[in-house]
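User: I'm curious whether this sequence folds into something compact or stays loose and floppy. Could you predict its structure so I can see for myself?
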Amino acid sequence: MGSSSSVFPPPSPAFLDAFRRRAALRGTKDTLTFADFMDLALYDRECGYYRASRPRVGRGAGTDFYTATSSGPVFGELVCAAAGSLLGRRGLRASDFTFVEIGAEPDGGVLRGVAHPFAGERMLRVGEPLRIEGRSVVFSNELFDAQPVRRFVRRGDEWRELGVRLEVAWASSPCDAGDWRKKSAPRGEATLTGKDARATPAGVPPAPPYLSPPPALSEIELGPVREPWLPGDAEIPEGYLFDAPRAATALAAEIAAQPWRGLFLAFDYGKRWEQLAHECPAGTARAYRTHRQHNDLLACPGEQDLTAHVCWDWLEAALQDAADRFREPAVESQEAFFMRHAAAFLEKTVATEAAGFSPRKQALMQLLHPGNMGQKFQVLHAWR
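Assistant: Here's the prediction. I'll summarize afterward.
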């Protein structure tokens, strides 16, 4: 199992406090499920990554990743064109619907700088109540991949859930602790070990323990788990990791339970259940920091993005299982979605800027080309 790497700074005091509080609530003292850890690292009010006010998205200094919105207003224009087309096929007008964006960044949503055709626009940011009603186009971009996942590892013929433990090492003296906190030792209390050790005088209490290295997080195996949605195949290899995006599914169900009617549009990256269960032996959870992807999921919690592929089958089921069920759910690559539902806009844009390779054409290339975002991202759309 993994542990937080020494190449990253240790967890912040704020995160350690949040971890201990959550563990106390769970009655586990120093251990959380990975899903609980990921929830703290991303969404805790005091130290969560998505609660910080610093810029996260873009290509500038200090950012960690870029999304389709980083391409400028072209992405928003494409979304408007596609939504208008999907509504038009049902004999409806975009001007009768409110555009609702869930998970919009603090600096603005997908319609920033876009002359949109909708009756109005609402942005629901992290931490705000999820309330949607009336005629709406409900849109999200990379919302579901940022929801906590439950991690499981295959051992023999069973699945074991993975958790995260907070480990604190103690030393009997600051000398045992090495150089890390020697300066914190009160004078006269140091007790050397080994050949230079001295006995503590009678009647003098032993020196208190000193914190040795910084507190560290390590991934551990919890107990065996049986769930109907876990892969049950006997041939699943030892050590196979399955990252189950259950919170994303619950969020989709919560959105579907709201009293609204209209178009659901979710842009994200994901896989089918069969792919997650049989083609991803290392799981899909990843970390992003300063535009670098890595697998140290426990490093500097609250200061890096954590993400995992969504399960499109589960999201579709959440929409169709709603009391007011959605119809015609479909998943398409981002490239196919825009080529099919925003074709007129694309033709006009290309014709208008036929000469040269303009910034708008460059943005289209980034969004549509299979080697860029065209195939990496998919779109789930449904209607009710």
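Summary: Residues 73-88 form the longest helix (16 residues). Residues 72 and 145 are 22 Å apart (CA to CA).
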